[in-house]
């Protein structure tokens, strides 16, 4: 009977038949005691060493289950400068700072811990292992700007989990592959840590909406399946990624809104397939080793607002069709080797939209020296693959554009047949991350 000491003393007897234990639990736990017909009773673990549940009454047995887990984690915290854990006391877990409760999908009369938001708490702890991975109904965990470290827990057994933010912490080691097992993961933010090594290609097979892995120390090439995830926001900036931008990026034509690849070591020519990203608003590849001309297909990016190709090895003329895009707010081509801009582009220069400083354009101020430009064109010019594609504007070439659209529709139908899955079951009151 030691495990029943967290209930009110009025219901504690010196001798209770084991056969009456389920009945006793249903009486003592207030609200949400009805279990799903397909669900077995949740286990009530023995309190960890130093954690007592004596004389506590919980609103629901699911809260009784997680109470000792939370208290055990609290004991591992080595710094709490803002005293965020000060009210982590007593049985009212739903009032703890950073904890959010809800009715779980499998039992709308129950109450459980559904989300955790530690953003900006500045907590320090050597590990999250044994904490969030042991909260069985958790759907969201946000912990931006703390000092958590150790290895990232395995969330794959948390049936409702879909949003993880551990950015700006002290995690290190290789990419946390435990996140690959989270079948409904849609939001992953691990930026501003010290992860290193390769980015596993499997992460691009996840049905993600948001992938932020910037400001780490990831290396190796972008994988060929780069365009396999239906991502909306993709940020891989400030790493050491190499190789070309994969042509499979065209598969993101109906989803990708923003992609940030700046400050890496990407090389090769810009793929013609960039022109098919019809939802794209922001594309930033500043400070890489990209080369070749700008593909005219970029003029099909009707929703684009910011294009940044600064500090690369791009050359030849700036397409007039690109400068004619009506939603452009900023087009940065500075510190490249362009040699020509036409009247439409010159109008953008005058309006402060187009930046072509430090190029090789005769008659414009603040350009590279003639010697530097001549040396580049004599020594470093290489033909790009599929050179004829750089003049094609697919949205104006009805045959090419409709062929692409029909191909996309056919692919979508095929994927619907082979990859259809039910929408993830989650909480009614939890809203997914908004931008």
From TrEMBL:
UniProt main location, coarse: secreted
Location of this chain's protein in the cell: Secreted
Record flagged with keyword Signal: yes
UniProt keyword terms in alphabetical order: Leucine-rich repeat, Repeat, Secreted, Signal
PANTHER family, A to Z: LEUCINE-RICH REPEAT EXTENSIN-LIKE PROTEIN 3-RELATED, LEUCINE-RICH REPEAT-CONTAINING N-TERMINAL PLANT-TYPE DOMAIN-CONTAINING PROTEIN
A GO term from the CC aspect: extracellular region
Annotated source species: Hibiscus trionum (Flower of an hour)
Signal peptide feature range: 1-29
UniProt entry tagged with the keyword RNA-binding: no
Protein name per Swiss-Prot or TrEMBL: Leucine-rich repeat-containing N-terminal plant-type domain-containing protein
Stretches of the chain forming a coiled coil according to its record: none
Organism superkingdom: Eukaryota
